[in-house]
Amino acid sequence: MNELLDLYITFVKIGCVNFGGGYAMLPLLERELVDKRHWTTMDDLRDYFSIGQCTPGIIALNVSTFIGEKKAGVIGALCATTGFLTGPIAIILAIAAFLSNFADLEIVQHAFAGIRVCVCVLILQAVMRLWKKSVVDRFTLFLYLVIFALHAFSGVLPVKIPAAVLVICAGVIGVLVSMRNRKAASAKANADTGKEADR
Q1: Fewest 10 Å CB contacts: which of 27, 49, 142, 144?
Q2: Which H helix or E strand runs over 109?
Q3: Would you say 81 and 65 are in contact if contact means Cβ atoms under 8 Å apart?
Q4: Are the C-beta atoms of 53 and 59 separated by less than 8 Å?
């Protein structure tokens, strides 16, 4: 019971500061879930983000569901998801109930301008962290540049390629390259074993 309550409270805190969502949340999730609580690893967190981007819904919400399920099964997933949603829903209801024309207030516009700058910095930090861990050789760099170019210039291409298709294609290519590398490593190991046997 304490574990479920801990999941709920942790994700209430995370949900309350979910400005920007998506990759802007990666540094916060890493600090809270990987460094502080050790509920997951950075590699798993990156995998959750990849899957969360390909599935319907908010990336950070999907990640919270995955981590809750890993920590305490289906009940844990429900607690983490509910916790993540509690803060934003409460804040939105409070704004809707007590403030009219909230977005038109000058102070709110200035606050959002500052938040946008912060979100850009958080996204840049997340990209730099992912770059260091994900781009490990020339092939992954080449793949990254091709996918970036296809996505960045999709507006001028004759056919628009959805981001989900690019992610799936990259995953398939990654699996094929991994299988090829394993076969090459296995063949090399067998050759080395054969040479040692000949001696």
Answers
A1: 142
A2: helix 106-134
A3: yes
A4: yes
Nearest to 49 by CA among 38, 65, 32: 65
pTM comes to 0.56
Q: What is the pLDDT along the chain (199 residues), one digit of tens a residue?
A: 688 888 898 888 888 877 666 666 777 888 888 888 888 888 888 888 778 777 777 788 888 888 889 888 899 999 999 998 898 888 888 877 776 666 677 887 788 788 788 777 777 777 777 777 777 778 778 887 887 787 777 767 677 777 777 778 888 887 888 888 788 778 777 776 766 655 5
Check whether residue 62 and residue 72 sit in a common domain. Answer: yes
110 and 139 in a single domain? The answer is no
Final residue in a domain of this structure, among 89, 107, 133:
133
CB 127 within 8 A of CB 23: yes
Domain end (from 83, 103, 133) = 133
Tokens of 193: 């074993």
Same domain, 84 and 147: no
Residues 25/45, Cβ–Cβ less than 8 Å: no
Taken in order 170, 172, 173, 179, the sign of the CA dihedral is: positive
Name the CA dihedral angle for 146, 148, 150, 151, rounded to a multiple of 10 degrees: 160
Q: Structural domain of residue 88, as residue ranges?
A: 1-133
Does one domain contain both 89 and 16? Answer: yes
Domain count for the chain, please give it: 2
